[in-house]
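thread from #wetlab-drylab

HS: before we spend reagent money on co-crystallization trials with zinc ion, can we at least see a predicted complex? here's what I'd submit
DV: go for it
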Amino acid sequence: MMNFFKKSKPEKKPQAAQSIFSAGIPRESDTLPASLKAYSQFIKRVNCPQCGAPKTLPSKTAYLYCDFCGSLMDYDFRAGNAGTNAGLSNTVYHRIIATVQSQMAQARARGDQEECRRIYRHVYTQWLKECPTAVSPRANQDMDFRERFIHYTVECAVAKDFDPRQAELDARMQRLVASLQRIPTLGGAWMAAGPFWEYAALFKQQMEFAYETIHQKGVDALDPDHAPAGVPLRMEYSYFCQAWLPHLSPADGERLLKMYGLDAEYDEFKPIQTDTRKCGCCGSDILALPGARQVVCENCGFTIDVNSHPISCMKCGALLSFPVSADHFACPYCGTDNHRI
Ligand SMILES: [Zn+2]
Ligand SMILES: [Zn+2]
Ligand SMILES: [Zn+2]
């Protein structure tokens, strides 16, 4: 994940603070194109690969979890832009990776996979700390999930780096990046010019190869979210588009989203009957649809059993829903340890 900035060369252009490879954080004065705006009251049209249910409730994050079984269904590009500076997580990643670039280059040249793993582990751990909203809400409080997520991400990066097919593509990428131009505009973000489409197509090809390798090596089995096929690629494309859309015309922006298959269909959210439960881990409200078995709490990321009846805390009496597969938990309100009966 987030691999596409790592090959960037140190910036040579005199007055530009950021590399053209890192499209950077839009300034406040920049107007965001419509294609970057989140659809808060709209729901992406997608069905659960596990149980077949359609996505029904709005999601606070880009990670769309099934409202009925709690499986990861999809990554919503538009939701990924909600309340964020587009490209921020990329910029942070770029900054962190820049501090280890020479170590990384040496390790790669030696073919030292272990050392690359060690460096990536440092990079992703740091990145996760600085960009908690860029990842699944599960990675922020569930430490076991977080650990597995870092492990998976590191293995993806190493698999891609040591894929011999990538070397030639990287060389082409370097040449293309060197010929991309940024055209200043009056009072707005700079616009990308030069071989942008060739560059975007090559990035797509690199990512397709990368996930092919990741699949062949069985690395995708390490994904703690068990993302359905195609979703990790959609995440990579989303990060890429987030970084570039502010620097393209609206028509080119639409073209880019189509090219990456991110021009999804959305339905307007219609209020629907739900049961409100209290998360046994963090105490926040969870909406349960009739027939839901387990749902991911959007606040703490734990999967909560909403099929069983809530239990009342032995001390404070709060009605709480149990985390799936936990046989006891501390009440988020009073701290009392409660056991599943
Ligand atoms: Zn489901
Ligand atoms: Zn929670
Ligand atoms: Zn309590």
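DV: The pocket of zinc ion (ligand 1) is lined by residues 48, 50-51, 53, 66, 68-69, 71 (CB under 6 Å).
HS: ok that's useful, forwarding to the group
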